[in-house]
Amino acid sequence: MITLSLIGIGTGNPDHVTLAAVRALNEADLILLPRKGDAKSDLIDLRRLLCRNLLDDPDRTRVVEFDLPRRDAQADYLSAVEAWHAAIADAWAALIETHLPRGGQVGMLIWGDPSLYDSSLRIASRLETCMKGCTKGTAGYPVEVKVIPGITSLQVLTAEHRIPLNALAEPVQITTGRRLREHGWPDGAATIAVMLDSGGAFESLVPEGLYIWWGAYLGMDKQCLLDGWLADVAPSILERRAALRERHGWIMDIYLLARSPLGVGVRHRDDQ
């Protein structure tokens, strides 16, 4: 059997890694670390650091890095994602066949949590089928998937801004920048959390009466926070976002939008 553990490692602060994640790392026979290009070298650097600091016996656990397949940005979005996931599952299967031919436990270090806007669970669901095409001892091995939850960027955002996620007795909707642009404010939502925004989807909204809490590189030493009434701070967020992307070569950010300041009082915050 092959056991694949998807280990949530939080958003960049090693202190956010749970004891359950540490235990899963040390139980693994093989840990796979994806490389996402030089521009995002910070992401694999943190994974390397965690392996160095948290593995009790580095000689027992094999750590293997691999280049993550790229998604075709020109193709239809859903079709491109399906093909991309299939390519990643094939890469996982080939690595397991090469480095763990007799089966065993595999660990994948997942940024944030595997359940929130992360595709590792969908990719893992393809793995058993991929393993059937293997030519070595792993061919046909059953695959058991385990999930070790991690701290998400949404949790760090609310913690760093010191706000609750929802207004009192009101619902929250988690969405993407693409859907916000295409469909506007979700019906029935008093508060929305926006992830995977390529930049400035909030510009599609009428800003009056909306408050925003924004954060980039949450949990990392380059973390940046800004909040205020959207009409006032939207230009500052866009300017800051562009400067940070230029400086670091990549950016991951998230924001919360609400029609009231969530009952904690309005305070302007602009942290480098």
Automatic annotation (TrEMBL):
Residues 3-199 form the Tetrapyrrole methylase domain. It holds the Pfam family TP_methylase. Keywords: Cobalamin biosynthesis, Methyltransferase, S-adenosyl-L-methionine, Transferase. Signal peptide: none annotated. GO terms for biological process: cobalamin biosynthetic process; methylation. PANTHER family: COBALT-PRECORRIN-2 C(20)-METHYLTRANSFERASE (PTHR43467), PRECORRIN-6A SYNTHASE [DEACETYLATING] (PTHR43467:SF1). This is Precorrin-6A synthase (Deacetylating). It comes from Modicisalibacter xianhensis. The lineage of its organism: Bacteria, Pseudomonadati, Pseudomonadota, Gammaproteobacteria, Oceanospirillales.
